[in-house]
Amino acid sequence: MSQTTAPAAVPRDLAAPRAATTPSGKPHDFSRKYWVFAVPAAVVIGAVIVFPWLFTVFMSVQDWKVGGGIDYVGMENFRQLMADTRFQEAMWHTLYFTVLGVALPVVLGTAAALVFHREFPFRGFLRTVFVMPMMATPVAVSLVWKMMFHPQLGVLNYLLSLVGIGPSEWVFNPNTVIPTLVLVEVWHWTPLVMLIVLGGLAGLPKEPYESAVIDGANGWHMFRYITLPLLWPFIMIALIIRTIDALKAFDIIFVISEGGPGTASETMNIFLYLQAFQFYKIGYASAVVVIFFGIVVALSLLLLYTRQKSKWNA
Amino acid sequence: MAKLIGDLSRRDLLKSTALVAAGAVAAPAIVSRANAQSKFDWKRYKGEKIDVMLVKTPRGDLLQQHEKEFTELTGIEVSSEQIPEQQQRQKAMIEFTSGRPTFDVCMLALHVQKRLSYKGKWTDDLRPLINNPEMTNPDFDVADFGEAGMNFATQADGVINTLPHFVDFWMLYYNKELFAAKGVEYPKSMDEIITAASKLNDPSKGVYGFVSRGLKNANIPVWTSWLLGQGLETIDPKTGKLNTDGPEAVWAGEFYRKLNKEFAPPGTIGFNWNECQTSFMQGRAAMWLDGIGFATPLEDPTKSKVVGKVGYGITPPGPKAHHSAIFADGLGIAQMSKKKGPAWYYIQWATNKENQLRMLKAGAGAPARQSPFKNPEGTQSKTFAKDYFDCMAGSGKIGRPGLPQIIPVTEFRDIFGVALTNTLSGADVAAELKKATETFKPVLEKSEQG
């Protein structure tokens, strides 16, 4: 199938620009002359990524509280973290929040994309309305949601009462706080998933569907065996973005529940915030960052690997 | 008297009148000379410029609104900024620790930063300035600052590294209409709060007997208010002993749980002051224990359904003592500031009688000075009834710190806050307080060593 052309068959003048060789005919060594162009990017990456990261690792092995001295303690911060039941709880809360906060928007966003892909009256207008939550500032919407969750005076319990359902304590109950926070997350970020999947749907080829109709496939078969596999790379992109977003969720949780009641919604980010900016335990907080970074990288690699596997031509 | 006048000759009377008239004419010159003798001069630092960091509050607004007055008086330019509470505390911590603060004057929350500011040498001892007649206005009147505020601003060894600006008293808001409807009197003791709450509690009508903070960290002053009724602070200010798991602390914890579980609206476990305020403001709670600084919206007809019905009661006495938990803000001069003179002038102006009176008149909270409460102008208000001012003045006389005066205050609030919240979920009070005390002990010990 593939045929290669021998470089020798191409006239020398056309094979490479004149400047690519020295007067003596030897090829230029670009790597030596033009490395200077890479310096600005290298400096920026070094300053904003590599240095902070190395410094965080350095701090994670120190006992350092703002206003106090710095003592090298080796892996002591990590050992303490592993024994800290509150940190373990925070990891569990993060996992719980992330699983729900990824799964629900992806399922609902995909469903919404399938709906909005069809032709119907006012489709453009309704699409715009649907994506509006995504444009709202998280802190502002969190404050509004918090008012709506008020057990006595919030509108949500009033709405529940209209359909005969008893009042809920929403974020004011340790058992319901995380699912309720996920509700806000779903409302906020489902439109993003919808947009990604909608983009994927617009690019799907028509031929497989025509063949399927000729073969007698029904709607479900076409969705299950054609649409979903073809959409999978796009859903994976949505999954990766949502997972990273949900893992680092802070604003919604902090504004609405502050990690409470008690520690019922204290995720790793809230735990980290407390250690770093309330208790000023920089060394301990840096150890949390190092562990958190490891988790994010591992998950991202796993998702990227899965995405590679899900490519159409894989 | 008539005889005395009758004995005076016409010449004597004329002489006396002339002397009085001469005295009246000469008085300003005498006062001016006296001030000149005091060597204090408001214009000493004319042309200087200072930076001031305030907390975003109605008090900060008032100071900023009247800054021009200070500049006209002294010729000192002021560049001030107001920052929300949490961020302001973080900024203060980082900048003071860096050794190069960008401000000359800083507002500090004494209930959180008192010991920290002293141990970290954040701010200067103000006593040499206060005692220096060249630097302090003769009218400043330090003795006018209330005992509660001054105690808060004074360190254990007598150093005064801030001057109190604002004091917040914890007290009991109550709905007079609901009380009258059920024929309930204002509680005369802490135990009577429970009796009153049980009579006023009517969940079928959406009305609850009592509301207070349940959210961790925010809930600590509720517990400490009850503990003060046992005559104890959470950490003994003299010995440093933790009073957090003894029988008195457990009693206060049980009291906290009973009120917040049996007579409070659903969900109080996650309530901070604003949720409590909303419940009370909408007439859904008969009593609310919190700081008096949250009173203004209750009397705002656009926000509140209880305008004119709010009673302001001093925290009732406990089994062994009668105290009101207090919180305070103070103003200090950064030790690293190169403009300490102008900075001290600013503090004198900010905490003078006129500005403190303005605070009271504006309903922006309780001033640290006593004179505004004695001034009829200060307590004549279209917004608040007399009991509001009586409550502030009365609470000031029995005020004791609502939080321990230690460095790791935030850790204290977090650890014990979680313990108290857990009790609302059914955990045993004594066990939770014991566990929290064990967790907190090493944190406290380390902070004192470091």
Automatic annotation (TrEMBL), chain A:
**GO terms for cellular component:** plasma membrane
* BP terms from Gene Ontology: transmembrane transport
Q: Which residues cross the membrane?
A: 34-55, 95-116, 128-148, 186-204, 225-244, 282-305
Q: Which UniProt keywords apply?
A: Membrane, Transmembrane, Transmembrane helix, Transport
Q: Which residues form the ABC transmembrane type-1 domain?
A: 91-303
Decide whether keyword Ion transport is in the record. no
Q: Where in the cell is it found?
A: Cell membrane
InterPro entries, from UniProt? MetI-like, MetI-like_sf, Sugar_ABC_transporter
How does the protein's chain sit in the membrane according to the entry? Multi-pass membrane protein
Question: Does Isomerase show up as a keyword for this record?
Answer: no
Question: Which family would the database say this protein is a member of?
Answer: Belongs to the binding-protein-dependent transport system permease family.
PANTHER family in the record = GLUCOSE IMPORT SYSTEM PERMEASE PROTEIN GLCT, TREHALOSE TRANSPORT SYSTEM PERMEASE PROTEIN SUGA
Q: What is this protein called?
A: ABC transporter permease
Automatic annotation (TrEMBL), chain B:
Family matches, as CDD domains: PBP2_TMBP_like (cd13585)
The record's InterPro entries line, in alphabetical order, gives: Bact_solute-bd_prot1, SBP, TAT_signal
Any one of the GO CC terms: periplasmic space
Q: Does the keyword Signal apply?
A: yes
Keywords of the record, alphabetical order, are:
Periplasm, Signal, Transport
Give the chief site where it resides: periplasm
Where does this protein reside within or beyond the cell? Periplasm
Which PANTHER family does the record match to this protein?
ABC TRANSPORTER PERIPLASMIC-BINDING PROTEIN YCJN-RELATED, ARABINOSE-BINDING PROTEIN-RELATED
Family the UniProt entry places it in: Belongs to the bacterial solute-binding protein 1 family.
User: Under which name does UniProt file this protein?
Assistant: Sugar ABC transporter substrate-binding protein
